[in-house]
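4.2 Preliminary Data

To establish feasibility before requesting continued support, the project team ran the inverse folding procedure on a target of 167 residues. The structure was first converted into the token representation described in Section 3, and no sequence information of any kind was made available to the design step. The complete token record follows.
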């Protein structure tokens, strides 16, 4: 574990505390979690297919907790389209995405959203799942379309463009 991160075990409940906050994860009964000299180890109880699957998932979850409380997670979204823009007003993200109405998205607790430019949204937080889910919900308001490329996309995402109608 990195410096400044502490962990504790209560049965199969792993609690990790760092400079950015505190997170916990309840490991399934198929795995054993141990804490030795500042290192968390996850091992399967049996050699069944489910136990091995839970072993890998639990190991990833614990690694994500540690990275989240030490560095945090960030997802960037880009908005493409004439008149499409975003702005943060208090605890609400206001989106203009070409509909007859603006979309007001309540920012969930534990998530921070900033708009450095009107066409750029940055979602940050310590929980990887919640950051990804929030970014996916924002993208779903108007996903990128394949003909003109308008909509909300992840930064760096490639959208396969289609050719338009021929005469």
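Position-by-position output of the design step:
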């Amino acid at each position: 574990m990195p410096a400044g991160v502490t962990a504790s075990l209560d049965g199969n409940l792993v609690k990790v505390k760092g400079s950015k906050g505190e997170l916990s994860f309840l490991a399934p009964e198929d795995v054993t979690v141990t804490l030795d000299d500042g290192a968390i180890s996850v091992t399967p109880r049996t050699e069944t297919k489910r136990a091995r699957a839970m072993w890998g998932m639990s190991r990833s979850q614990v690694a994500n907790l540690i990275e989240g409380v030490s560095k945090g997670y960030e997802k960037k979204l880009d908005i493409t389209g004439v008149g499409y823009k975003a702005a943060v007003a208090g605890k609400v993200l206001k989106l203009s995405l070409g509909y007859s109405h603006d979309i007001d998205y309540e920012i969930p607790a534990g998530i921070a959203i900033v708009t450095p430019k009107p066409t750029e949204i940055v979602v940050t937080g310590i929980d990887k799942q919640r950051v990804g889910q929030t970014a996916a919900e924002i993208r779903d308001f108007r996903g990128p379309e394949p003909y003109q490329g308008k909509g909300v996309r992840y930064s760096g995402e490639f959208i396969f463009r289609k050719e338009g109608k021929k005469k």
